[in-house]
Amino acid sequence: MLILGIETSCDETSASIVENGTKILSNVVASSLPLHAKTGGIIPEVAARQQIKYIIPVIEKAIENCKFKIENLGSIAVTIGPGLIGSLLVGVETAKTLAYVWNKPIIPVNHLIGHIYANWLVANSVLQIEKPRATRHTPHAKIDFPALVLIVSGGHTDLLLMKGHGKLKWLGGTRDDAAGEAFDKIARLLNLPYPGGPSIEKASDKGNPKAFNFPRPMLDSGDFDFSFSGLKTAVLREVQILKQRQQFNNSTIQQLAYDVQEAIIDVLIAKTIRAAQIHKVKSILLSGGVAANEKSRNELKLSATRHRPHAKFFVPEKFLCTDNGAMIASAAYFNYKPVDWRKITANPELYFD
Ligand code: KG4
Ligand code: ZN
């Protein structure tokens, strides 16, 4: 079945066509990120205004790229939350209109569940807009259940046990800032550009192990919750001291970036591995924007191999870690529950049931 996935929950506007939940036929993402880089963060009205401009051309391009006929489209999937209300409305109202006009079933999708399903996508079936008709398709390695899922995005950090499609149990999450949010806020303290995750990753390349010993929040709390706001405060204090001593320069910024990245990744890994061991999972799935971080991918994989050797480790290709319509289409395929378009509404606060 071909599903058109529409994603507009934050600063991306994306439309993708996915076959049977795994094979990406086209994937178009337009981002208003350069506009937010100027303001050091997302201004919701600016994001939504851009999405109104982008949404139709993005959907047209997604269809054009794989040259298929609307008659062959099985259904439409759309992110209904969580996210920014103005942004969500653009995608939801467009998807509802298309469902009515084309007379297609529509499936509402939780954005966070979408992130998980990026792990089912076969990245090399298509990639660039320039190569829309690429047909290389390798079958996805099988994800066995139960699986342990870590979602690390800009707004969320959650650990879940997945016993099957539609069978998710929330184990824990952040009590304050999400991991991506911590990267973004700390980057601002370090005068690094938005979005903070990639900036900190880049700056940390030149750091050395452990100059600043930042806290590993809630590392030994015995539960699966996270807290990253204390780390932000610790960095602020260090920045103030360095500024007083006139030592706040490129070299100390790179070092701070290195240690911040280490502190965040250490906690994420420790909790994930503990949960994987306790729940005796067969697979470990990393997902969300922060999963694009090379060190988080490598270190979690390494740690999983060492401490849970029988479990298989999965992480989406980097371009599928951040927001995209393909993951929404995939989530809809594996959790196929069409709803009357009149009953679909955007829900910025949507979480797990
Ligand atoms: O999943 P996502 O695209 O959007 C949300 O659903 O929030 O995640 C965006 C977040 C941002 O906080 C961004 O700084 C972070 O993912 N991120 C990264 C990297 N790339 C994006 N964090 C660390 N390292 C990266 N390479
Ligand atoms: Zn996201």
Description:
With 353 residues, this protein is α/β, with parallel strands linked by helices. The protein is 42% helix and 19% strand. The protein contains 11 helices and 10 strands. The chain has helices at residues 33-39, 44-66, 85-102, 111-117, 179-189, 196-204, 229-244, 250-278, 294-307, 318-321, 325-334; strands at residues 2-7, 12-19, 23-31, 73-81, 106-110, 147-152, 157-164, 167-173, 283-287, 312-314. It has a 5-stranded mixed β-sheet, sandwiched between helices. Helix 2 runs parallel beside helix 3 (85-102). The protein is globular, with a radius of gyration of 20 Å. It starts with a strand and ends in a 19-residue tail after the last helix. It binds 5'-O-[(R)-(carboxyoxy)(hydroxy)phosphoryl]adenosine and zinc ion. Residues 10, 153-155, 180, 183-184, 195-198, 201, 288-290, 292-293, 322-323 line the site of 5'-O-[(R)-(carboxyoxy)(hydroxy)phosphoryl]adenosine (KG4). Residues 10, 153-155, 180, 183-184, 195-198, 201, 288-290, 292-293, 322-323 line the site of 5'-O-[(R)-(carboxyoxy)(hydroxy)phosphoryl]adenosine.
The N- to C-terminal Cα distance equals 27 Å
* Strand fraction: 15-25%
- Structural class, judged by helices and strands? alpha/beta
Can you count the helices?
A: 11
Task: List the ions, cofactors and other small molecules found in this model.
Answer: 5'-O-[(R)-(carboxyoxy)(hydroxy)phosphoryl]adenosine, zinc ion
Which descriptor suits the 3D outline? globular
Tell me about the largest β-sheet. 5 strands, mixed
State the strand order across the main sheet.
3-2-1-4-5
The overall strand count is: 10
Order of helices and strands: EEEHHEHEHEEEHHHHEHEHH
* Mean pLDDT metric: 92
